């Protein structure tokens, strides 16, 4: 900041105007005691932890939804396989019936 010829107050007034109430609380103090810094860091850590917990909960919800969807898809896949097996059996039985009918017709023509 010093390189550019501007001090912090000029930048803040330029950004926030003369309304000091809109300044972030962390910028209002020039000298902060170590205890206050520690409390601020703990507050920040708490906020980060809360955000992390929220992300974990969202991840768990999404994971659960994906797991349920996967179970539905597996069940539908099994149903489809069973249906395919039944249809294949139906086709084989029809082919046998057709062959018997053709043989019967051929035998009757002799």
UniProtKB/TrEMBL annotation:
GO cellular component assignments: cytoskeleton
Tagged with keyword Transcription: no
Pfam families cross-referenced by the UniProt entry: DUF4200
Source domain of life: Eukaryota
Keywords: Coiled coil
Annotated DUF4200 domain residues: 38-110
Signal sequence coordinates: none
Family matches, as PANTHER family: COILED-COIL DOMAIN-CONTAINING PROTEIN 42 LIKE-2-LIKE (PTHR21683:SF2), COILED-COIL DOMAIN-CONTAINING PROTEIN 42 LIKE-2-LIKE-RELATED (PTHR21683)
Name of the protein: DUF4200 domain-containing protein
Originating organism: Chromulina nebulosa
């Amino acid at each position: 900041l010093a390189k550019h010829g501007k001090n912090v107050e000029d930048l803040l007034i330029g950004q926030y105007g003369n309304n000091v109430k809109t300044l972030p609380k962390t910028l209002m103090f020039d000298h902060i005691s170590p205890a206050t810094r520690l409390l601020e860091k703990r507050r920040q850590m708490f906020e980060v932890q809360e955000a992390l917990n929220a992300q974990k909960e969202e991840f768990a919800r999404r994971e659960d939804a994906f797991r349920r969807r996967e179970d539905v898809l597996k069940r539908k896949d099994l149903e489809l396989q069973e249906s395919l097996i039944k249809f294949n059996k139906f086709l084989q039985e029809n082919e046998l019936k057709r062959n018997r009918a053709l043989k019967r017709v051929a035998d009757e023509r002799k």
